Predict the structure.
Amino acid sequence: MDTPLIRGIGLGRTYGALTALADADFAVMPGEVRGLIGSNGAGKSTLIKILTGAVAPTSGSVEVKGETVRLGDPSEMIRRGVACIYQHSNLAPAMSVMDNIFLGRQPTGRFGRIDRRRQRADAQALMARHGITLDLDAAVGTLPTVKQKEVEILKALALDARVLLMDEPTGWLSAADVVRLHTTIRGLKADGVAIVYISHMLDEIFTVCDTMTIMRDGRVIAEAKVAEMTRPRVIELMVGEKLARDSAAAARVPRRPGGTGEVRLQVRDLTRTNVFRDVSFDLHAGEILCITGLIGSKRTELMHVLFGADRADSGTIEVDGRPVAFGSPREAMAGGIGFVPEDRHRDGLMLGLSMTENLVMATLSRFCRALLLDHRAIAARSTRSIAELAIQPPDGTKAVRLLSGGNQQKVLVGKWLNLGPRVLILDEPTVGVDVGAKAEIYAILRAERDKGAAILVVSSDLEEVMTLADRIAVMVAGRLVAIHDAEAVTMARVVDEIGGAA
């Protein structure tokens, strides 16, 4: 079949003087998995919004199965078999799997009553056709993330979708769940479904995609078969030659294991029953210690105890040589601990508020003058932070929800840097950000380290760990099994330890 299932021709979109997308051609064939990659702000989101009908282009046209479609109409694109699975779930967590699959279009019988028997039969037939197994009666909110993704896939396929756009589908999945999702994608491919796979994880692009489209500055820069591309070439096309060189150079920055030698955070035999046990380590001023391991190794749970969100059952924590037992995050903040959580949308930022409001949220009390807020001082602090972190656009009044993922993450990091913490904890600090933004965040963290900050990073991205860490700790099933100087250990050794027994 020579006709693409979906095709964009000369697509453009402007917002006043800003060009978000320019003269973009894009097509996906039946049974093709096409990776769509590019830095934040490259135009991917605008292209996807046009293809799903959420936004009308200012120029160009869209064809589905060779027919030109009405632009800017989501219901028309759904009717034509185009569906999008977003990074953040669009499911109703309290409702069952079956009801989510057919939400708003349940089959009905006489007198308009929902035909539950037919609904169940249709759901079972759909699962059998696509090799997906789910408990139809389970509440979606009780399912693991990978199973929720499968519910979203079935929900789209129940609409007879033949084009699936997947936006960062594996951001919070474990390595095993990523493999499972990729198996599902290959099954859809064999059934002739066209898949657009949007991801910052280049390893996934090379693993599951047949072809790739690379975007930069609102334009399609390159299209190629995955088998004909190399990772360095992809990075260069995504971010430009200079930033690609900067990103590669970041891995060669000299390490500082042990930092200044001053122990800023000391943890001894820390245990939370049935979660983690006997965890001991020192974090020094002027160093970055990365804790890595599989999802489920209880790294995040350990961080929650350090930040006072949960209590340990035994063991000790000292900050600057003083024993602490934080009973809440507020106490931890007062004790010099900052915490950048994994999910910036759910736990880190107030998306509807401005950059300025988010940047000063953790330090608002410092701007109180006689029970009133000093808005001039707040604006000045925000302006300095935006400049220091190179947040784009540099407009403190802009709502955070309107920023790219990388710039949202910089706002979140800046919020905690403004606290001036003695210890800064970051949980998966670059999930969902592109190569260029990662390099910028690494530079920010190194600059803080060089000023004497003690930085503790949790990351399951081994390339990130090997690039960023001064020392590397490995956690397996609730046990800290090894700590290495980053320059003295290979990735193969770390991978072997991660897969070992606790």
